[in-house]
Amino acid sequence: MTIEAMGEQRREPAAHVHKVGYANRAIKKKRCKRTRRGASTVSMALQDLFVSCKQVFKGPDSAPLPQDIKRLCNLLDNMKPEDVGLSSELQFFKTKDAVKETTRVTYTTIYKCDDFSLCIFFLPATAVIPLHNHPGMTMGPDTPTQLRLAKLEADSVLTAPCNTSVLYPTAGGNIHQFTAITPCAVLDVLGPPYSKEDGRDCSYYKDFPHTALSNGEMELKREEGKRYAWLEETEVPENSKMDGIEYLGPQGLQVARTATGLWKL
Fold first, then answer.
1. Cα Dmax for the chain
2. 102 falls in which pLDDT band (50, 70, 90)?
3. From CA 109, how far away is CA 116, in angstroms rounded?
4. pTM value?
C-alpha cells in the first residue's frame, strides 16, 4: 500500500498525477556555535505517524484495515512541511531561482524497516517519475512482452496542500506516474517497502491508446475507450534514475513510544 502527500506550500499547481537546507544555530552570549545539521527534535506529528505505521503495517501478508487507513490519512492530512524539516523558503521551491537544466528526482529516507518506509521525493519543475507499480500490491507478475489492458482511474493536477492519495493493491491507480509542474515534494508511506530479495522490485510500463492495439479482447465505445489503454512492461527508463541524499530533518523517532495516531499521503 502506498500513501503519498504533497509537501510544498504554495497554492499554485504543483504536480500532475497520472494513475493506471536544514540548519540550526544555538547562540550563547556573543559566541556562535553551530549545531549538527538536522539535529532538531522530531515533531509530534511525525512521531505519531511513525508510531501509527508501526501499529498498522504488520508485513506483506497482513493488509491494513479500513479504519487503520483512515487513521493514517487523517494524520497525514494535518502534517505540515515543517514536520519533516521543509519550508517554502528553501531554495529548491523558489521557481524563479530553480536551475532549469536540473530535472532529476531526488529522494531521502526518513525511516525504513521490513514492514514500511517513510520517504520524501523532491521533483524539480518538469521532472517525471515514469509509469510504475508498487510491487506486492498487484495481481501476479507479467512477462516483459505481455500487453495488459488497464483503465484510467485518475488524471489530475494536485495543488499543495491537498488530501492524501491512497493506492491499494488492486485499486486506486496502483500503476501511476508523476509530472511536476512546479518544484514540489511528495511524502511517501509505503507498506511493505520495495525489496528485490522478497520479489517486490519496481516495474515500469509504456502505455498505448486502446485503439492502437485492439486485439478483440474488449469492444468499447469511442468515448469509453479513452479511459482504457494497453500497458507493456519495459526496461528501467533513463528518466527513472534518482539521487539519494541523507535525511537532515528532525531526528529522534521514539520506537518504544505508545500512542494513537493518524496518517495521510
1. 79
2. low
3. 11
4. 0.75
